[in-house]
Design a protein that fits this description.
Radius of gyration: 21 Å
Strand content: 15-25%
Helix content: 25-40%
Number of helices: 12
Mean pLDDT: 87
Distance between the termini: 33 Å
Number of domains: 2
Strand order of the largest sheet: 6-7-8-3-9-10-12-11
Shape: globular
Low-confidence stretches: 1-7, 341-365
Number of strands: 12
CATH class of the largest domain: Alpha Beta
Order of helices and strands: EEEHEEHEHHHEHEHEEHHEEHHH
Amino acid sequence: MWRKSHVTSLLRVDGLKKYYPIRTGLFAHQNLHAVDGVSLNLGVGETVGLVGESGSGKSTVGKCVTMLERPTAGTIEFEEKRIDSLSFDELRRIRRSIQMVFQDPYDSLNPRRTAGETVLEPLTIHGISKGRAAQERTAELFERVGLRTEHMARFPHQLSGGQQQRVGIARALATGPSLIVLDEPTSALDVSVQAKLIRLLRTLQREMGLTYLFISHDLSVVGYLSDRVAVMYLGQIIEIGPTRKVFAQPRHPYTMALMSAIPAANPLERRERIVLKGEIPSPIEPPNYCRLVTRCPYATDECRSMAMELWETEPGHRAACIRSVRGEIPIPHYDLSHRPLVVAGEYANGRAAVADNVASGVASSE
């Protein structure tokens, strides 16, 4: 049974925009629209996957949520408190509850500090513990993420990629957060290490009640971890809904193209590849209508004359395609019976998942 989203909202993002000024001439400057009007809610204990191609604005959304980047416009509320307008000192208190795990584990660690010092630092900065108590807490965090205490004395270059990322996860857990932004945490790792790391993330979420914003371009990983998935294209969310619904019956042409690229798990399923042709609009001067119109095989003049918004296709499932909402384009149906997408629901009921048993069979060394 698929896990239902919690009613309580932990994070609420409304109309988020992030523009970067860039030089376009000797004296000319324009704005690059990295994120352009993103709205998103995360319930307590929920995992929301954020997917899209490179340059779609996924990581920028994550940086704005953690306030590593100040939004250009829009609001961000955490635990019903607006955080996008807080001062530095006020943000420091909030950051105990919002942490981030970065894409490249090696670049995210200080090469001059041991792994133990890296995990110990947030305990000291936030005044959580010090001295012997901090050391014991650090050792406990290492054990929780599957590392031995001897790893505490090692420098990043002395650790494997999987071990480096586990150190990054331990650092994120040090302050006792309720929300963790995972910015493609498995993309720099090989497949066997990915499986074990994903299993660790699920276990930590179940035991600690964590909420994840999971950013990735790997649809298989997103399908395994996420309760809901939001698809981004050129700085905007163009489809959002329960993971099973979005994967089985995508309603936006861009999502259809993404899903058609996933190899079918069922050898009897015939999956027609949808290829989007045409020029991608410039993020410096994006159109005020549907941004897929230059590549969409179903685009009409109406798509070029009206601003797109997320319309509800069914309860909890919304797409930014008016023709799809009206039923004017064919909707593909993909067979998910051979995919481990039901893992999230089985965890919610406290039962062991088949995919976890597969993951546990991976070689123990990283």
